[in-house]
C-alpha cells in the first residue's frame, strides 16, 4: 500500500475532483512520490458544489480506493490531497492557489462539457454562459477561465507558468484545451495570449480506468471491509493506464515513469484507440443496454446478444479505422476490454455512462462513422448506437417510461423527437455542435440512421442488436 509522505507540499492543483481522478491520477502521483520523492501533493478544486470537500475535510483529506476484481476487493488509503477548494464559494482562493509558484502543474478532469467548447469543431463556444461571464469578470466560473486568469496572475508576478495537464476523454485533449485557452485569452488580452502560446505547455494524455459511481451500499461495504467509516471512497477496476506526452514546463513533473505511466512523444494513437474502442463501445452498450432494460454494463454483457455485437463492432467498424500504437495488438486490446466489461464486480450503471452524450458522441462514435462511410465500410452497429442515443435523449424509453436525461442540450434534444423517424433524423442532423459536416451532408447516412431508428422502435433494443 502506497502512502503519500506526510510532509510533501502541494505541487499540483487539480480542477474537477471527481471519483475518476481520485481513483486514477491521484494514486499514480502518490505512488510516484513514494518511489522518488518530490513535493507533488494535490490541492483539489470542486468547480460546482461543496459535497466532495465536505466529505473529505473531516477525514483529513484521506480516502479509501477499493479495487474490484472478480476474485475480491482490495482497499488502499490515499493521502495525496492537501486541501480541497470550492470555486463558487471563493474563486479568489482558487486563483491564489494556482498562482502560487510552488504549483507546477494544473490538471483537469472536468468532463467533456467542462471545456466550454463545441465538440464537433473543438473551438471555444463563445455563447457559453460561463465564457460570457469570464470575459467580463476577473473572478471566473469556467475551467478555461480559471486557467487564463491564473496564468495572467503568474505573468504579472514574473512567475513561471504551470503545465496544463488535461485528463479528460477528448481526442488530442492537450491541443484542444490549448486552443480553447488561447481563444479565451485572445478575447481578454492579446499580450497574455502570446505569452501563453510561447511559454505554457499542454501535453496530451490518455487515461483509462473504469470507475463506477460510489453508492451508499459501497460506503457501507467499505466500512465493513476496513473497519473505518469513509464517506468518500472510490471504487475502481484493477486495470489502469496513463499515457502522457512528456512535454512539461522546465521538464518539471513527478517521476511518473517509475510507477508505470507511459511517457511518449505522441499520444494520439493511444487516444484514438481508447476513445473509439473503449469509450465508443461503452457509450454504445450504455444506450442500447439501457433501452434493453439493463442497469449496468456487466448485466448488458450477460445478455447473450451483446458480447457478439460488441466484438463485431471492434472487428468490422472500429479497428479498421485505427492506426495501432507501436507494439499494441488491437485485437488483444479488444479481448481485454470484453473481459473488463463483463467483470461482475464492477457495477457501472448504463445511466451514468449515458450522461452528456451530445458532448461525448462526436469523439467516441461519430468520427469513426464518418471515416467508415468515407471508406465505404458498412457502419450499421455504430449507426444503431446513434439511433439508441436519439431515443434515449427523447426522455422516454422504448416502453414510453420517463428517462432522467443529463445533458447540457437536454431540452433541445428532447424537442427534436418526432413520430416519423426520418423527421427525427433530419432534426438531429441539423445540430452543427454535435454532428460533423461529413455526416450532416451525407444522405446515405441519414437514410441508414432512419432505418436503424425504425428497427429499434419496431423490434426493441435486443432484437435490433441481434439483427445487426
What keywords describe this structure?
alpha/beta, 5-stranded parallel beta sheet, 21 helices, 48% helix, 12% strand
Please describe what this structure looks like.
A 5-stranded parallel sheet has the order 5-2-1-6-7, sandwiched between helices. A 3-stranded mixed sheet has the order 4-3-9, with helices on both faces. The relative contact order is 0.10. The chain has 21 helices and 11 strands. It has helices spanning 19-23, 25-36, 51-56, 91-99, 129-136, 143-157, 173-188, 190-199, 216-226, 268-291, 297-301, 305-318, 330-342, 350-353, 357-374, 380-392, 410-415, 421-429, 437-440, 443-459, 461-467; strands spanning 10-15, 41-46, 63-69, 72-78, 81-86, 105-108, 163-166, 205-208, 234-236, 241-245, 262-264. The chain has 468 residues and is of the alpha/beta class.
What strand order characterises the main sheet? 5-2-1-6-7
Q: What's the shape?
A: globular
| Share of helical residues | 40-55%
Alpha-carbon Rg, integer = 22 Å
Quaternary arrangement of the chains shown?
Answer: single chain
Portion of residues in beta strands equals 5-15%
* Largest sheet properties: 5 strands, parallel
Quick gist of this model?
The chain has 468 residues and is of the alpha/beta class. The protein contains 21 helices and eleven strands. The longest helix is centred in the middle third of the chain and has 24 residues.
